[in-house]
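2024-03-11 09:14:02 INFO worker-7 job=invfold-0412 stage=load source=structure_tokens
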């Protein structure tokens, strides 16, 4: 069974998806981590981001392995390295490229095959797993998302201003929403939830309730 959770950056979908997978005893796939790892590979290979052919070549040659929260790039644990701002800033060059999306989507389908899995990203319900049994689109207003990010960074000892975070987030939203292929959008049959006035615990409980209802229905069919 596939549970697809999509939504914009900072909507809290990663931690909800991760915790939902744990509660349901499903596997968890962070598809953003795959895009990040391939981006890191191209940065290390010093590829010119305008050289689409070279990007596609590196992307097709890298070996990605994934185990829960750990992602291996050609055998090396890059789980921390893929979160750097340098990687975040460069992702769009790869995420905008249809051939790279095709390869990574195929890889995501291979990973999910035959598993119970919670998969999280931008295009999971609408493009990669249109047949997913449960589709959620978690969102929140830009201000609330930026405020949550501010608090998260503070707790990690990093101090950015609200305006800096909001500006970077607006830029990412625009990139994610205007991508020619695989843009951020809710699938037509996704349940859209605005989490502005909800605690993470409430969002998790709500997601779990919906999934369990679908699981029960499947069992009685
Ligand atoms: O979820 P994240 O912040 O780690 O994702 C980083 C970027 O990767 C995101 O801004 C766009 C891209 N991405 C994508 O294009 N498709 C996905 N399914 C997941 C991420």
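2024-03-11 09:14:09 INFO worker-7 stage=emit residues=221
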């Amino acid at each position: 069974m596939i549970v697809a959770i999509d939504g914009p950056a900072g909507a809290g979908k990663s931690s909800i998806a991760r915790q939902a997978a744990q509660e349901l005893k499903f596997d968890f796939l962070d598809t953003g981590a795959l895009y990040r790892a391939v981006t890191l590979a191209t940065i290390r290979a010093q590829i010119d981001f305008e050289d689409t052919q070279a990007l596609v070549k590196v992307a097709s040659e890298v070996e990605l392995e994934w185990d829960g929260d750990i992602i291996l790039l050609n055998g090396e644990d890059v789980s921390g390295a893929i979160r750097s701002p340098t990687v975040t800033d460069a992702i769009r060059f790869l995420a905008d490229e249809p051939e790279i999306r095709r390869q990574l989507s195929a890889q995501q389908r291979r990973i999910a095959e035959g598993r119970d899995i919670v998969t999280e990203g931008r295009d999971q319900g609408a493009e990669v797993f249109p047949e997913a049994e449960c589709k959620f689109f978690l969102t929140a207003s830009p201000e609330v998302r930026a405020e949550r990010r501010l608090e998260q960074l503070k707790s990690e000892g990093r101090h950015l201003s609200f305006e800096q975070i909001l500006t970077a987030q607006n830029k990412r939203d625009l990139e994610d929403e205007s991508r020619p292929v695989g843009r951020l959008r809710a699938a037509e049959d996704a349940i859209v939830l605005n989490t502005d006035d909800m605690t993470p615990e409430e969002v998790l409980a709500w997601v779990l309730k919906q999934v369990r209802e679908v699981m029960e229905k499947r069992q009685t069919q």
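2024-03-11 09:14:09 INFO worker-7 stage=report msg="The domain at 1-26+117-212 is CATH 3.40.50.300 (Rossmann fold)."
2024-03-11 09:14:10 INFO worker-7 job finished
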